């Protein structure tokens, strides 16, 4: 019985009852002989309430102070959780990110972990305590200022601590039963995945699956820390994410892991670009100079008659305005006809390492969409993923059709709640 | 123009509006050419809400975790205050007690400051920033755990920082205009005191005046830091507490500084104590072994016929039950007849260094009470204070009578709000 890192999200510790329930589960792991380190997020709506207060005093809050403010959230939840555990007769100590040795760079609101020096945590668990660590936060290496890790930060804290402490597993407790073959809110017959490789999980995460964030899975893959995503409301096995199949039910890797969708992106089309070297580069240099991230990029064959081509790309809707502005400004230099902006799109992705050796996958995918009457606007593929852009209105239809076509539908409809705070 | 430490209590920063108002006042001091260090308490009811949460998860919260929890309160207010100042175009940085170098012992919930090493604060203000420091909190010297300073802790933080930074003055902003000659809720004609010596302020504080706590005044006296108690709602001069009269209106020290009252104590009478050496010692050893603090102690002359005497003492009501239990248990050993417990009492104290050389003060005091028909149950005096215990019902009558008798009544009724979070 080794060391286990458990992470509980904000919805699992939303109120005193939730905290007491989580405390019981933690104590169980301890009773089973594990050393236990727990990473916890802020309670339910705390973060939103703090953001609301910040907006009341300042329209553009300073990064340093915003981080100082937000980290109060985990301070509350971790202290309460430690109290609840002690109330069950077990020893517990809470630690801030700084006390736990989570060292980051100085980029406030989205700091990256540089190093983890968990000396105090090791000391605490070796003395028989359960250690409770604030997720989402760290301390900057140079200035010793409090930082936060941005969206999904608590998951990253958990995986980083698991790596530094050489834990057996990092358990991510959430309000769903695991990772599903599709979003269960859209596909009623979506199945819980028992095991998925890091590689496929990375593709799902970057294709719109919100259970685990890309960054956290990447960290786990680099340090080879198995992640077990499971519900804090049930005792069921969830989804293992690792290099090799794990747990009581080892399985062959499926050809297809799942179908993800994403409606948070917009599409920009640059119309009438001269088809000559350097044009695409000029366009994407303009975008990257504005510090915007783009996702899919597609260029069609140019029409022979005009020597002009169109370049389309997708990016987060929230960056759409900024990108249009930058491109409009650069138009005289780059030389294109016009810009088209479209935020009524959806991206549907099929992910699975098995498609490498199964040439029929692409055909089946397109047939399924076509049979469902869904029009495809853009296509982009990697070795283990196919993504298409469709109308936003078609997204549910499209996901269900693809899910069915690849035999992913379960026999029964599973009852799941889907959500989470994203912290 | 030197360095000023300003402290704002929870009622001054109860909401976003309050924070913005306080930010303006801080910026004014900065514009006037001062280096400014601000100590801030938790917003309004935050502390009570956190205590309520703690009680929901654990009936007896651990001291270490309770401190971790409560310190979230100042983290929120200080970050918001720094944001609000930056929004006014001035640079501000917030610091936790630990970052500000407030080093304490390890007694959780009521830690004492051992040392202040404000290197980061000095650096921040020398770089032109306004430094915002969390009141009420520190870090323990040996274990590096987060501690809190207990009731009135933020005032103590402010005075300790003022001493370590060699500030010109420590301004304590509150929701009253200063220290009054009596509680204005009881005596409508109470006057604001322009200047009071450390010595008299210490006696007032230990006699029930709640504007400044004993501990904070003691600290200020030891390091000779002038305190200016004033309202955060007005720009008026408040009360200066210092060795020598200060400010634009230096004054002679009055014979009497003020009248304080306290209804938070109970009286225990040990009846029928054998009048022989060692009996009183045995009683008070019993009390101190239970870690209870007592206030007034009075022993009457014993009745010659019985050789028995009564010993009475007062102590906080909250400790009453524990003291009665300890004494009851010790009765067989000590040997007394019975115990009487009375929590319907009030203590009225007259404070003023001038009474040392004015022999008539005591007589005037007792005459005033007698004329008001107030019965005296216990009397205790120091060189600059007379305290009596009366029925709780008589307290207002008694305070008003004494206030009047010593010519403390002002000509006009001052409009004041009286309250405060005591943190």
Automatic annotation (TrEMBL), chains A, B:
Pathway(s) the chain acts in: Amino-acid biosynthesis; L-methionine biosynthesis via de novo pathway; L-homoserine from L-aspartate: step 1/3; Amino-acid biosynthesis; L-threonine biosynthesis; L-threonine from L-aspartate: step 1/5; Amino-acid biosynthesis; L-lysine biosynthesis via DAP pathway; (S)-tetrahydrodipicolinate from L-aspartate: step 1/4
Keywords of this entry: Amino-acid biosynthesis, ATP-binding, Diaminopimelate biosynthesis, Kinase, Lysine biosynthesis, Nucleotide-binding, Transferase
Family annotation (InterPro entries): AceGlu_kinase-like_sf, ACT-like_dom_sf, ACT_Aspartokinase, ACT_dom, AKii-LysC-BS, Asp/Glu/Uridylate_kinase, Asp_kin_monofn, Asp_kinase
Gene Ontology molecular function: any one: aspartate kinase activity
SUPFAM superfamilies: ACT-like (SSF55021), Carbamate kinase-like (SSF53633)
Membrane among keywords: no
Domain (ACT): residue spans on this chain: 268-344, 350-413
Metal-binding recorded as keyword: no
Superkingdom assignment: Bacteria
Classification via Pfam families: AA_kinase, ACT_9
Enzyme class: transferase
EC number, UniProt record: 2.7.2.4
Catalyzed reactions per annotation: L-aspartate + ATP = 4-phospho-L-aspartate + ADP
Family: Belongs to the aspartokinase family.
Function: Catalyzes the phosphorylation of the beta-carboxyl group of aspartic acid with ATP to yield 4-phospho-L-aspartate, which is involved in the branched biosynthetic pathway leading to the biosynthesis of amino acids lysine, threonine, isoleucine and methionine.
The protein's name in its UniProt record: Aspartokinase
Lineage: Bacteria, Bacillati, Actinomycetota, Actinomycetes, Kitasatosporales
């Amino acid at each position: 019985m080794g060391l286990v890192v458990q992470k509980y999200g904000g919805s699992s510790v939303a109120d005193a009852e939730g905290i007491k329930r989580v405390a019981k589960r933690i104590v169980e792991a301890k009773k089973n002989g594990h050393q236990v380190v727990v990473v916890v997020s802020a309670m339910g709506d705390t973060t939103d309430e703090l953001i609301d207060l910040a907006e009341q005093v300042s329209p553009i809050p300073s990064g340093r102070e915003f981080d100082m403010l937000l980290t109060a959230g985990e301070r509350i939840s971790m202290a309460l959780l430690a109290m609840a555990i002690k109330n069950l007769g077990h020893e517990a100590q809470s630690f801030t990110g700084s006390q736990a040795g989570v060292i980051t760079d100085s980029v406030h609101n989205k700091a990256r972990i540089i190093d983890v020096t968990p000396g105090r945590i090791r000391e605490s668990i070796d003395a028989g305590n359960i250690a409770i660590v604030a997720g989402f936060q760290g301390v900057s290496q140079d200035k010793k200022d409090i930082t936060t890790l941005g969206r999904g930060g608590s998951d990253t804290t958990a995986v980083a601590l698991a790596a530094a402490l050489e834990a057996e597993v990092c358990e991510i407790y959430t309000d769903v039963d695991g990772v599903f073959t599709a979003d269960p809110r859209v596909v009623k017959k979506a199945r819980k995945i028992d095991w998925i490789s890091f590689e496929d999980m990375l593709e799902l995460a970057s294709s719109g699956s919100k259970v685990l964030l890309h960054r956290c899975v990447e960290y786990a893959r680099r340090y080879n820390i198995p992640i077990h995503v499971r519900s804090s409301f049930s005792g069921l096995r969830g989804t293992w994410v690792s290099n090799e199949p794990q747990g009581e039910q080892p399985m062959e890797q499926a050809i297809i892991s799942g179908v993800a969708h994403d409606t948070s992106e917009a599409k920009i089309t640059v119309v009438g670009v001269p088809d000559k070297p350097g044009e695409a580069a000029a366009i994407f240099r303009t975008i990257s100079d504005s510090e915007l991230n783009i996702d899919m990029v597609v260029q069609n064959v140019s029409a022979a008659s005009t020597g002009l081509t169109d370049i389309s790309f997708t990016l987060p809707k929230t960056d759409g305005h900024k990108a249009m502005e930058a491109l409009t400004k650069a138009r005289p230099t780059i030389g294109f006809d016009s810009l088209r902006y479209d935020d009524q799109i959806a991206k549907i992705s099929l992910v699975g390492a098995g498609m490498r050796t199964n040439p029929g996958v692409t055909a089946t995918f397109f047939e399924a969409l076509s049979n469902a009457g869904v029009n495809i606007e853009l296509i982009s593929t990697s070795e283990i993923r196919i993504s298409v852009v469709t109308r936003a209105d078609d997204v549910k239809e499209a996901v269900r059709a693809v899910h069915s076509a690849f035999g992913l539908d379960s026999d029964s409809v599973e009852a799941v709640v889907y959500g989470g705070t994203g912290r």
